[in-house]
């Protein structure tokens, strides 16, 4: 997306690039320096977006969950355990098959949908430590995540939503997995970034966390960070994950009491 | 979290995966629960129930289980007794679709394979598959995990084999010996590996 053009070439993007850089500088100055000013959507740096989660939107699946964090909307369906495909290698334990896809209208630029291989494998990594794979030998559990609208922090929301869907499907798990990401802007750390904030960030950190067992299942760090800031950011993420975990538990309990009445 | 309370009233409160159910010094993990280190935790969503220890057992600890909420469908486990429908019979093996695992109906499709050497316990090299099974027969068998392609089913026991079948004429077959069944319409005798009921 760099808008650099050599001299003498046809470069309508140069001016637009300047404007972009200007906007970026302004946002960065704003987020990196003024600690007390709220973010574009009115949150303070350590406020998450309001979360809405629900189990059971997909009736055909064994279990499913819907999550909405601000503009980001995700639906996850879990199928199985069912027979593994013939081409698979023999395995004594079960298999977790994860797939993340975007709808064509998920992003501002239309039609960038299709499968997201990177997110699929990261979702698998985040969940496999929490699922008791030995309880369904030789079979596969399919986890299909569909991003209806991408509004930033997509992967952490997919991970949290997928763990809710797995629990809804009755898959045995050691614990739920809650996930939160933070962005780093200069000296400041902001939690649950939106797409705009993710686009201008200096670095990002994603933590997937099992709240009851206090274990991290996945940690992804990108960009510029300093030692002390990483520690702060991980602690911030873990604290947010614990609170998100409580929300996940409440949703599961709501459904459990509703079905038993 | 209120889940740490260890009241022995049988409970009824809803717990979710990962929630602490108690200490492994006083509780044993039952269905839907697991023990790790000192703590016993839930592995599914459901109602917590505490079962007192069986009288006369050495272990004085109660068992805690999580039941009531929906669990995933039954999954074939090695050693479980399954009910399967034969779909295809070949010279050395027969294919069967598994329908029940340990008296529970399964939701997803699982295919099993009865090999020639697994049909009966004696004279296993003289088995004729066509004189043991026909497509459509309902078979009781013991399951093992098999290979990458299918689950292996074994009927090499007296109480395993065909439990229900239709004759060529369309009547119900009635077992008359461990290798023969008789049609209730025509009286014709057909050969099967019959399960002892």
Automatic annotation (TrEMBL), chain A:
One Gene Ontology cellular component: cytoplasmic exosome (RNase complex)
GO biological-process terms attached to the record: nuclear mRNA surveillance; poly(A)-dependent snoRNA 3'-end processing; rRNA catabolic process; rRNA processing; U4 snRNA 3'-end processing
InterPro entries: ExoRNase_PH_dom1, ExoRNase_PH_dom2, ExoRNase_PH_dom2_sf, PNPase/RNase_PH_dom_sf, Ribosomal_Su5_D2-typ_SF, RNase_PH
Biased composition (Basic and acidic residues): 17-45
Region (Disordered): 1-45
Classification via Pfam families: RNase_PH, RNase_PH_C
UniProt biased composition (Low complexity): 1-16
UniProt keyword NADP present: no
Alphabetized UniProt keyword annotations: Cytoplasm, Exosome, Nucleus, RNA-binding, rRNA processing
Subcellular location, record wording: Cytoplasm; Nucleus
Residue ranges occupied by any Exoribonuclease phosphorolytic domain in the UniProt entry: 48-171, 175-236
GO molecular function annotations of the record: RNA binding
Sequence similarity: Belongs to the RNase PH family.
Entries under PANTHER family matching the protein: EXOSOME COMPLEX COMPONENT, EXOSOME COMPLEX COMPONENT MTR3
Protein name: Exosome complex component MTR3
Organism name: Panicum miliaceum
Automatic annotation (TrEMBL), chain B:
GO biological process: RNA processing
InterPro entries found in the cross-reference section: Csl4, EXOSC1_C, Exosome_cplx_N_dom, NA-bd_OB-fold
UniProt subcellular location: Nucleus, Nucleolus
Superkingdom, natural source: Eukaryota
Domain Exosome complex component N-terminal: 14-51
Domain Exosome complex component CSL4 C-terminal: start-end pairs: 103-142
A GO term, aspect molecular function: RNA binding
Protein known as: Exosome complex component CSL4
Organism, as annotated: Panicum miliaceum
Organism ancestry: Eukaryota, Viridiplantae, Streptophyta, Embryophyta, Tracheophyta
């Amino acid at each position: 997306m760099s808008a650099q053009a050599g001299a003498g070439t046809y470069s309508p993007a140069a001016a637009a690039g300047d404007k972009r850089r200007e906007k970026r500088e302004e946002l960065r100055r704003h987020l990196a320096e003024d600690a007390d000013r709220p973010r574009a959507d009115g949150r303070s740096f350590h406020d998450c977006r309001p979360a809405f989660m629900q189990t059971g939107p997909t009736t055909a699946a064994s279990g499913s969950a819907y999550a909405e964090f601000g503009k980001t909307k995700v639906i996850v369906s879990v199928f199985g355990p069912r027979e593994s495909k013939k081409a698979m290698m023999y395995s004594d334990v079960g298999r977790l098959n994860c797939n993340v896809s975007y709808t064509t209208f998920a992003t501002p630029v239309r039609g960038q949908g299709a499968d997201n291989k990177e997110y699929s494998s990261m979702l698998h990594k985040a969940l496999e430590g929490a699922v008791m794979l030995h309880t369904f030998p030789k079979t596969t559990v399919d986890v299909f995540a569909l991003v209806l609208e991408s509004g930033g922090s997509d992967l952490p929301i997919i991970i949290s939503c997928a763990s809710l869907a797995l629990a809804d499907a009755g898959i045995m798990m050691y614990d739920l997995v809650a996930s939160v990401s933070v962005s780093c802007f200069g000296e400041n750390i902001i939690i649950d970034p939106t797409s705009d904030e993710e686009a201008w960030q200096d670095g990002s950190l994603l933590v997937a966390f099992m709240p009851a067992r206090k274990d991290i299942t996945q940690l992804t760090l990108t960009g510029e960070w300093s030692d002390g800031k990483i520690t702060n950011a991980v602690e911030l993420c873990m604290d947010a994950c614990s609170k998100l975990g409580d929300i996940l538990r409440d949703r599961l309990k709501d459904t459990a009491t509703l079905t038993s009445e | 979290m209120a889940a740490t309370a260890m009241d022995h009233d049988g409970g009824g409160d809803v717990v979710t995966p990962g929630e602490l159910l108690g200490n492994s010094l006083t509780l044993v993990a039952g269905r839907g629960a697991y023990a790790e280190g000192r703590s016993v935790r839930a592995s599914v969503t459901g109602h917590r129930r505490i079962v007192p220890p069986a009288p006369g057992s050495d272990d004085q600890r109660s068992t805690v289980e999580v039941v009531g909420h929906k669990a995933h469908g039954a999954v074939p486990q090695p050693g479980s007794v399954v009910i399967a429908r034969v779909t295809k019979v070949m010279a050395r093996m027969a294919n069967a679709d598994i329908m029940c695992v340990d008296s529970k109906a399964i939701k997803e499709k699982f295919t099993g394979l009865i090999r020639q050497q697994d049909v009966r316990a004696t004279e296993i090299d003289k088995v004729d598959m066509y004189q043991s099974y026909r497509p459509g027969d309902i078979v009781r068998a013991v399951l093992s995990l098999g290979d990458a392609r299918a689950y292996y089913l074994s009927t090499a026991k007296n109480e395993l084999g065909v439990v229900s079948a239709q004759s060529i004429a369309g009547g119900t077959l009635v077992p008359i010996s461990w290798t023969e069944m008789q049609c209730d319409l025509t009286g014709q005798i057909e050969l099967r590996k019959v399960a002892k009921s």
